[in-house]
What we know:
Oligomer: single chain
Helix content: over 70%
Order of helices and strands: HHHH
Mean pLDDT: 81
Number of domains: 2
Strand content: under 5%
Radius of gyration: 22 Å
Number of helices: 4
Shape: elongated
CATH superfamily of the largest domain: Homeodomain-like
CATH class of the largest domain: Mainly Alpha
Structural class: mainly alpha
Largest sheet: none
Distance between the termini: 66 Å
Number of strands: 0
Amino acid sequence: MKNYPPQFKADAVALYESRPEATTRSVAADPGINPETFRNRVRAAGVSRPRGRRTQETSQQAVPWEAENAALRKKVRELEEEREILRKAAKYFAGETRW
Length: 99
């Protein structure tokens, strides 16, 4: 029987709360927690979600996160391209100064 520290348990429940599309089984599988144990922990924390399919309200809440994630991915690509250009420039100028 595994004993998890209270902070780990709180972080796992917070992860479950932050992902409206996630199930208790999927969140519990990642760190290797028994799904039933995790479900009991979520119930004890007082987290509840509507059963069944996602409601229209839940779907609308997910849209801003998706848009923000897309914008952040685009920014990461731009920064990686800039970094690559700077690496190539540094390599070019380092080679030019050698005799």
